[in-house]
Amino acid sequence: MLGFENFTVKKNERALLLRNGDFAGLFGPGKHRVFGGFDTLTVERFSLNEPLFEHELADVLRVQEPELVAREFVQVNLGESEVGLRHEDGVLVEILPPASRKLYWRGLREQRVDVVDVAADARLPAELLARLQSVNLRPRAVRGLDGVLLVQVPEFHAGVWTLEGQMQELLAPGAHGFWRFNRQVAVTTVDLRAQIAEVSGQEILTRDKVGLRLNLSAVWRYTDVRLALAQMPKPADHVYRELQFGLRAAVGEQNLDALLESKAAIDASVLAQVRERLAGSGVALESVGVKDIILPGEMKSILAQVVEAEKSAQANVIRRREETAATRSLLNTAKVMEGNPVALRMKELETLERVAERIDKISVVGGLDQVLNGLVTLRQPA
After folding, report:
1. H helices of 83-217, where?
2. 227 and 282 Cβ atoms separated by less than 8 Å
3. Which element (helix H / strand E) includes 275?
4. What are phi and psi of 126, to 5 degrees?
5. Mean pLDDT in order along the chain per 10 residues (382 residues)
6. Residues 6+ apart with CB under 8 A from 188
7. For 195, how many CA atoms within 13 A lie in the half-sphere containing its CB?
8. What angle do CA 335, 338, 341 make, to 5 degrees?
9. Backbone angles phi, psi at 310, to 5 degrees
């Protein structure tokens, strides 16, 4: 049936007219009347609020309607090594991957796409890196960030940058960015400060076959990160294993008594052995200390008995020494009194004074002479 198709396009819209499913025209804002005849007319509307034009006829328009595409769209045709930075009204909103083919509507927002060749340098341009640092604070996120690697290397750390599995260089503290497109790039951070290695619960036999459990703590640091990572996939695990081996060797070559007398001997032995094994590895061991030596239950009882016997013997020696000294003092006093009656009488009075302090009542008969002659009656209270 012959007829006309009437349709209205809003100011923030564009309309695509299809005649029998094929492109027939692109219409801007306003009222439109199209003669259909015997054909089937279809009108598809597109909001300019969504600037990307996605349609199965997009490639047809590029080839057959180049003037229309140039007038109505911002066209993006990226090469295999090119990345597009799309801006809306001067604000970066999207990172387009290589080989992208896109059409963006003109009219509502100013569209601009900057092309960057990423083949020569994996690093992000400094200006772009600075703009991407604050993307999470923006009300509108930048799309396509999966194509970049943003890294923040903390202070006192180094960033190990690898490209296609090969170590490139060490990154200084600060912000760094890299293109992920067409390459494998990764950055791991390494702490350059002193690090603690705890070796706990090690069951080890001494030279005299006594089982001990020991806990050890060590301090180590990187001296050459590149050298360390070139030789060891996990330097921290390597240091831990070397400390284990060094501790077992130090404990296994000494008797229990020697170990209990000086834990510092274990520290020195482990430190010397592990330092020698880590020489030239890019890792340095700074200090080692045994925190605990835990004995089995039966050995604790035996040692407690030994200690008790030793202390008891020491107490007996001290007691005998004091008794001997006291006896010698009494003997010296007796010798002095033997030839000095006044001193003897003073000693008697001193003794009487000490006795009198504990007596409630004292009866003296015969005067002071009787007291001195021993005629003193001491009466306890009734």
Report:
1. 126-132
2. yes
3. helix 263-278
4. -60, -40
5. 78 91 91 86 91 91 92 94 93 93 91 92 91 70 91 95 92 94 93 93 79 89 94 93 91 78 84 93 93 68 57 72 76 70 68 68 58 48 47
6. 159, 160, 162
7. 17
8. 135
9. -65, -45
Length of the chain: 382
Q: What is the distance between the alpha carbons of residues 294 and 297, in angstroms, rounded to a whole number? A: 9
Phi, psi (5° rounding) for residue 29? -60, 145
Q: Which 8-state DSSP code applies to residue 141? A: P
Structural contact between residues 76 and 101, judged by C-beta atoms closer than 8 angstroms? yes
Helix/strand/coil for 373: coil
Farthest CA pair distance, the chain: 165
3-state secondary structure (DSSP) of residue 56: coil
Strands 82-88 vs 91-96: parallel, antiparallel or unpaired: antiparallel
Residue located via tokens 């503290």: 173
pTM, full prediction: 0.68
Local structure of residue 134 (DSSP, 8 states): T
Other C-beta atoms lying within 10 Å of the C-beta of residue 372: 14
- What's the rounded Cα separation, in Å, for the pair 321 and 174? 74
The encoded tokens of residue 176 equal 């760094």
Residue type, 217: S
